[in-house]
Recover the amino acids of this structure.
């Protein structure tokens, strides 16, 4: 499977990195590395995660984030990487805006 991270997901990663670096220098880098590792792990097991709002949702291992993706033919398309602490209505709206 080919893994593709869409611009919206890259922007989410950048926003998360800034947030965590503001908490403590260096945590943003840990966030970035951890989430990229979680994203890379999707390729061999894409599609096994439960559906939420029309996307598969994989929970990050070290941070309270969810990776929303779709499997299209042989591609895994990562659409958004969102903070799970947000109001679910806001998450649904952000995912609707992507489509």
């Amino acid at each position: 499977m080919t893994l593709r991270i869409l611009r919206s997901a890259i922007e989410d990663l950048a926003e998360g990195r800034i947030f965590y670096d503001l908490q403590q220098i260096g945590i943003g880098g840990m966030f970035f590395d951890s989430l990229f590792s979680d994203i890379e792990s999707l390729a061999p097991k894409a599609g096994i995660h439960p559906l939420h709002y029309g996307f598969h949702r994989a929970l990050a291992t070290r941070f309270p984030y969810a990776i929303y993706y779709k499997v299209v033919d042989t591609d895994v398309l990562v659409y958004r990487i969102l903070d799970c602490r947000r109001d679910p209505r806001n998450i649904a709206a952000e995912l609707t805006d992507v489509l």
User: Anything to note?
Assistant: Helices lie at 7-23, 27-40, 42-45, 88-98. The radius of gyration is 13 Å. The CA atoms of residues 67 and 81 lie 5 Å apart. The first strand starts at residue 2 and ends at 5.
